Protein: ABC3 transporter permease C-terminal domain-containing protein
Organism: Pseudonocardia halophobica
Amino acid sequence: MSGAGWHGMRAVARAELRSGFRALLVLGLIAGVVGGLLLGAAVVADRTGSAYPRLVERTGLDDARAYLPADLPEVTAGFAGLPGVEESWTAYAWIAQIAGPTLQYTSVIAGPERPDDLVTPVIVAGRAPRVEAADELLVGEPLAAAAGLRVGDRITLKMLTLRQVARFDVGFGEPEGATRRMTVVGIGRMPSWNGPLGDSMSTPAFAAQNAGAAGGRSGFARLAYTGDAAADAALRDRFVASLARSYQGQPRPLIVGNYVPEIPVFPTTDADPAVAAAERVLGIGLWGFALVVAVGGCVVVGQGLVRHHARGAVDQRVENALGMTVAERIGARVLAAGVGAAAAAVVTAGMTLAAGAIEPIGSQARFEPDTGFRPVWGTIAGGGAVVLLCFLALAAGSAALAGLEAVARPPAGRHRPARWAVRWPPLFVGLRLALRGRTVPGTIGLPAAITATGIAVTVAGIVASTMLGASLQRLVDTPARYGFTSDLTIADAREPDMAALAADPRVAGLTEVETGRVTIDPARSRQIDAYAHVLRKGDIPVSLVDGRLPAVPGEVAVGARVAVREQLGLGDSVEVTSSDGRTARLTVTGVAVPQPERGAPLGEGLLMTPDQLRELFRQPLASAHVLAAPGQAGALYGDLAQRLEVHLPGMPPEIDTLAGLLRLPEILATLLAAVAVAGLVHTLISAVRRHTRDAALLSVLGATPGQVRAALGVLAGTTVVPGVAFGVLLGLGGGRLLWWQVASQTGVAPDVAVPVWPIALIIPAVLVGSLVLGAVPAVRMAREPVAASLRAG
């Protein structure tokens, strides 16, 4: 480029800034807000989606964990040598009664100092217990929430002996172990508590003081995973088989078997499916919002730059005559657009930086290991640069389009609105205007198909979000849909308790639930609970998804999550093996959502007849589901909780995870609606302005102002209604598919809730809105002199 060319570009750029500084700055600010929303949503989506994996990494979550019998030290000693174990920690485990007005039990683990990178909870309040302190306790978040514990609280633990733990199902009287006065010094966060990990953790000093009274052992291991799914699965199978062989030749332990599973669990590979479902919903929602904002923002900014540079088309014609090349004319306008590009980059970077203060949304916030401000500097810097370059690219493209029109402006041609007006009423005039899109040389408009597609995507997001929100709300508000049909559950209920409950007039329904652990795969690497319901009083229904409950031995109803994972349907056969080593082949008669026992995952159980369960187990465990008479649940709980381990139905973790999403669909639908309204306003105003000349010609040829406004109203409606109609259909399908994925992974019924009236009102509401929005510029146009409108066209 010659020096004269560079000086000419600078001169033109300065002239552009003098005449259009404000317009470029405003467009830059709009682009910055759009970029900030897009990148901010990306930052929040990434933080939300990565919360669980980051917590897994920060806590050193173990790859395998297992209960180990306290009375079989050989099994415990061999745990570290099982196949694939790279690192391990073996802790003591205790069951203790928390002294208080109600009967409540908790589990505590402690042991020798563990490896720094294995089973290390994130401290969310307080501090970790000191190694040398035997009276300090780190409480898991679930126990802290359930028991109302805070840092500094003092609690009394009455320890159970091994023999008492083994008699949990038949009763053992008062705890016979030591009584320990403990101080809660911290509250810890883990991907999951309970199971071998227990509810809380203490210190090596506590373990040394109470080792002789431990009710069991807990083993945690880091496995030599390679990243190959098949090889890692084979390694887990060898681990399970080797642990099972370590029991051979040993006397039967007191508490491993039906009551405590001998099969290990694999926390890093057996994550709660509800967590994955929540991550997917949040990710789809946030990225969907970002996509709509990005598309809408590019359209608005692009159209603004097109209009800005179209006003300078005459200047480009002069510049061309003076010898400036196309590249120099475009370069001059790109230089001027640098003001808007800089503003866009600064606003984008600032909004992206501010997004770092937003913690994971919904239920995923409970997995965040790094609370507080978390800026993503790479996204901030890179995002600002990308938005700057995108703005300059849009400026270059719009300047090039305006330059093409300026240099080689085609003849105006003949317009035939008179024939339209004579042959067709305003309805067809409006349709023709909508479908033609570009009517006057020098004007640039979006094709109708692109406009309709953008509207359809936005409306589909609104409809799908509304359906997801309605389905979530119905699930959370209806405990029966996730299997909780009773008011109280009594753990380890005994026959005298059952008889007393059946005779109590405050009890309207009573079901005895017998439980045993079975496996349904040949490798026996996964245990699930099998239930049998014995109705003792009234009627407590079981939630069914499909089919019917088993009526005779040989039949089984599988949990909803089991049905999806094992691909079982009505009429299929499944072979089960009990912890006692007995097998049975059963026919699937139904898919159900049984109420889980002992903290089992939702939708994981099997339902069979009492006779069938007793064929598989010598002594199944028993609990009681109680349905209270109207108004009697509180009094009944207060009475029973003083002498029995009574649990209120509460909300299972899987449903609690989904409940954290309740506000997301509403927020997402509102944001998408705001984007849709802004997009409609811009689309309709631009469409009406593009047809200013046509409207003026219609007026000259005799059309009344009412007919002109009617034609422009049809233009507005024709532009948006097809997109809205298709968007509603697309949203119905997308919402149904999204809810099916969430429900099937959670283990609940997959039928979707369709809010008919809100969805049915979308089309007429948008139609009326488009007519109103289209009428505003039409009325303004009608007030202008026809000659001025013709010159503007």
User: Anything to note?
Assistant: Confidence is low (pLDDT under 50) at residues 409-424, 437-446, 786-793.
